[in-house]
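Interim report, section 4.2 (structural modelling).
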Amino acid sequence: MAGADSAAADPKGAPGQGAPRGGSGRRAVGRKAAGRKAVGRNAVGRPSAAWALPGVLFFVCFAVAPMLLVGYLAFTDWDGIGSPQWTGTDNWSRLWHDPDMRQAVWLSLLLTVLTWLVQTPIALLLGVWAAGRQRNRAVLSAIFFLPLLASSVALALVWKQLLDPNFGLIAEIGPALGFEDGDLLGDPQGALGAILFVTAWQFIPLHTLIYQGGARAIPRSLYDAAAIDGAGTVRQFFSITLPQLRNTVVTSSVIMVVGALTFFDTVLILTKGGPGTDTSIVPFLMYKNGFQAFDLGYASAVAALLVVVATAVSLLLVRLTGFSAMRSTREGM
Amino acid sequence: MTDVLHQRPEADRTTGKAAPPSKPRRAGLPRLLKGSGPRRPNYPAGLASLIWLVIVGAPLYVLVATTFRTRDGYIDDGPLALPTHPTLANYDRVLSSHFFSYLGNTLVVTAVCAAIVIVLSVTVGYAVVRARSRMSRRVFQIFLLGLAIPSQAVIIPIYLVITKLQLYDTLLAVILPTAAFSLPVSVLILAGTMRDIDEELYESMALDGAGPTRVLLRLVVPMSRAGISTVGVYSALHAWNGFMFPLILTQSRSNRVLTLGLYDYVGEFRVDTPALLTAVVLSIVPIFVVYLFARRQLINGLMGVGGK
Amino acid sequence: MTMRTPRSRSILRASTLAAALLLATTTLTACGSSGPGGSDDDSIDVWVYQDASTKVQRAVVERFNKTSKVKAKLTEVPGEGYSDKMRTSMGTPNAPDVFFNWGGGSISDFVKEDMLVDLGPSFKKDPELQKAFIPSILKAGAVNNTYYGIPMRGMQPVILFYNKKVFQDAGAQPPKSWDDLLGLINTFKKKGVTPFALAGTDPWTELMWVEYLVDRYGGAEVFKRIQSGDASGWDDPAVLKTAETIKELVDRGTFGKNYKSVNYTADGASTLFAKGKAAMHLMGSWEYANQKANQPDFAKSGLGWTTFPAIPDGNGDPKNVVGNPTNYWSVNAKTKGKKRDAAIEFVKFAAKQDYSKDLIANGDVPATSDATSLLGKHENPTYAQFQYDMVREAPSFTLSWDQALSAKNTPALHTNIQKLFNGQLSPTGFVTAMQKDIK
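Predicted structure of the assembly:
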């Protein structure tokens, strides 16, 4: 831990070891600002809370109210044509016993975890590398950035074509990769893997960018000190870069997880939830029940569950990674 | 995105001291981009990046090369063969298949969404950061709650609401919910940016007798330009790429946006893969042009979503 | 209260801002959405499933608009999501005035809610109109013995197509019996050709196998019971035998190895078949028009066809046919007054001879009574005659299950069938799943 120690010893390495301290240091700055606010306690020029009104009304109309409506519809039977009929907890007991639903929850969680495991190391490594200064890096970073410019629909369509077992790229290179018949999308693991790969292909650039931003903000002095101590690249990475990027990791992970729970576009186009139901993640199951079977009441129950799962997972993640620190920052405002 | 909460002037992260905390981050950023990061070349990461280059580059090559091929050539010779008789027929076919109408709709949706989100998140952010009342914290909490809600989960009630408002199959049907779901992140980003504005500046404005509107326009907006452009980029990309709302809330060709148009080209072009891929390439062109001219803003905007 | 003034002023400002914003939004979008979704006063919105046959509807819209003050506006909905989109929009004020459907379950929910115009009175007023169509086909579009649909496309029996060249190369003959079919599977496997093209990502193509097998094993009665809501229909031994046969076919390599990721809606299976990578294809009669659009030479000289063979010990009549009798136009009951008159006038155009001629020219066999006289004009008269005879002589024509059952059941039906073909459900598991899911 020589690297970290020397970094802490460095008079300029202010955030100290790791981010928690850095976080508290920053909070202190926040407090100071709050303190200063207290000095100028005049209301002149301050807006009233009414300034938030248009935004809040808009958000309530098209996000909060629909959310509450989902809660209501989840207790009804509604085919989209007539009007919703109250059926009590019927949908919920059906949900509880629905094997497709269990599978969907499992697949969503699996896909989320795998997405994180695949994307984080690659994006971290690429981001740190791209934070450097050589010229060719700029060109390469520009190429890496390209998938980010296309919509998930466009990319899913491209990959759907490339993965066609008879006419696509997979038909030619599949045998070399161990897919004799190019039947990647017909295989449960293969289809899930394809979704994982396509979404990684699409989103790693975004996370690379986030890590690149994070890595650039790490003070060079930390590395200088570590270099004097004789720490190598790998050691520097683990003792300086990684701890310094802690908050960036949290940010990137939250985006990744909430995103992975809702890979709807890719699933719809690439696999239609198949083979069978083996890639039917929760949002897809909701779509299928809602806008193919027109069992909109039941689909609302699925949607309500999706909200609960998404909220729970992000809260859990945020808790595990020290979101409480953030919360106090917020309260200090 | 939550990391935005941590935002504060970059300057003190580099120097480590409480050094001029009032310095707007806009000024601090370019300097940082040049002068930091690990000094030694990172070989493992360099190798990984080369591998990734192949993974990203090869499909992109196939994508672009295919657009110059004929359907029969693609089917008979396989996707990797070189286009021996390059043709522009695919571009012709796509451009005459309502492409510009779809593009126009997407541009309207994107511009209006970004405008709504910017105006609303600036006013909300301003109230959250500066208003005295306890209400403003409540407001902030409402938006925080919205962060984790996947927009897909509310598609059914949105369908109901939009239908009741007689907006089904209009661009407004897509714009309203899309903008609403861009608000939480945007408010967070802007609240973070606005909190960095030095109190003294507010005080001096107040001494001049400036009202809230003037403070907003003269001080807050100019000082939050970085945050506003992040919000603009974020909400515009969000609207540009949106799929589920248009899929369910619009129908007719005249209201079809580009993502939905691409999806529907599958049924129209069927086995004509080169035409379909041409449509994909053409759908990326407009945003690629933006990228060429505003690369830095776009990238900084996206980095801003991550919150540095 | 000194606070009052600034606060109310800022409320005022904020609401002015909100109003301005709303105004700007609506103006901007109004420019963008100039094409209205069919609620104009002077036009009727006509929805049709987009595929190789759509040009016939394009032509009729043009003809109709020359004669009518109220213009028809054709909306071509991509096939992939047609039923879903149609159903979604029927719940909104922007529903189409006239729309393409499959009769039966595809419209039964609308009938329940009184959303369709009863065409009975129009038939009474205009007996010629009723006589224009083959009665059994007209009837197939009825719900509860009330007519809601006018036949508007060709007959669509499911036909066993084969690739003549591949057969020639293998010295094979089209199958006349089930044993022939099993023999052919071996022949083609040895030659490295997939015996049957199958689009496993579009489960409705797999459904065709189930429909024929159940019919051949147990007769048309089995599905009639299921359709009438009698869940015990799934207990019929014919269903289990069908499931077992399918498993056996799959295990034999009948569909090759990568059928699970082959599609039909983007012509994957049809292209494989036309390019000689697969020898046979069980598909609706529209396959001809489809091949004609993509591989005209193949459609003209390479495409062969025959009926689905009988199965040893099967109770079903081997002359029975499954598929879609045809497609229908239905008129939305919300369309009133002048527009309704125009809409009814428009659907009547499907009974005219120039419409039938267009269908014939497109490679379809119309469901009109005068079709016999037109068959000779088909570019492939033998195909047209074959199809016509097949339908006319069939003791029973079972509507595709996914159209006969209500929308609520379709996804489960498709999923279970796909799982059966993928080996994710055993034959008994399939029967249990159907009993449970289809209500």
